[in-house]
Design brief:
With 128 residues, this protein is α/β, with parallel strands linked by helices. The chain is 24% helix and 36% strand. It is built from three helices and six strands, in the order αβββαββαβ. Helix 3 links the parallel strand 5 and strand 6.
C-alpha cells in the first residue's frame, strides 16, 4: 500500500523553477502546501515571466493552476526580478515586489542553480 498523499505526488511533479528563456522580468517565490490532513509537506517554487505587468499576475496564474483539484494551497512569500542571459549563461536575481515584499533571493538562487547547473547564478538585494 502506498502511503504517499495525493498532494505529495502532485508536488513531486512540480518544476522547482520555471522562468522565461531570456530577458529581464518579474518573479515570485511561491510556497506550495498540502491541504490534506496530517500532511505538512511543502515546497518552494520560482516562477518568472516577462508577460507579467505585476508580480501578482504571475502568482494568480500559477496558484490558480496548482490549486485546482483542492489538494494544494499556495502562498506567495516574496518577489523580485531576474535577468536571464542565456548566451553568457548567467542569471542575476535582485530587487523586490511592492505587493509581496522581497523574496529570499538565496532560496531562489538555489532553485535556479539546480535548474541551470551550467550557469553562473548570482543575487543581491539592490534595485527594484
Amino acid at each position: 500500500m502506498c502511503s504517499q498523499t495525493k498532494a505529495a505526488a502532485l508536488m513531486a511533479n512540480i518544476a522547482r523553477a520555471d522562468i522565461d528563456p531570456s530577458g529581464v522580468f518579474k518573479y515570485v517565490l511561491i510556497r506550495v502546501h498540502s491541504r490534506e490532513e496530517g500532511d505538512d509537506a511543502e515546497i518552494d517554487i520560482v516562477r518568472g515571466y516577462g508577460w507579467a505587468e505585476y508580480h501578482a499576475d504571475i502568482y494568480d496564474k500559477v496558484s490558480e493552476e496548482l490549486e485546482k483539484g483542492g489538494h494544494l494551497d499556495c502562498e506567495c512569500i516574496g518577489g523580485g526580478r531576474i535577468k536571464h542571459d542565456p548566451e553568457a549563461k548567467k542569471i542575476h536575481v535582485y530587487g523586490y515586489s511592492m505587493g509581496f515584499g522581497r523574496a529570499n533571493h538565496a532560496v531562489t538562487t538555489e532553485k535556479l542553480k539546480a535548474r541551470y547547473p551550467d550557469y553562473e547564478v548570482t543575487w543581491d538585494n539592490e534595485g527594484y
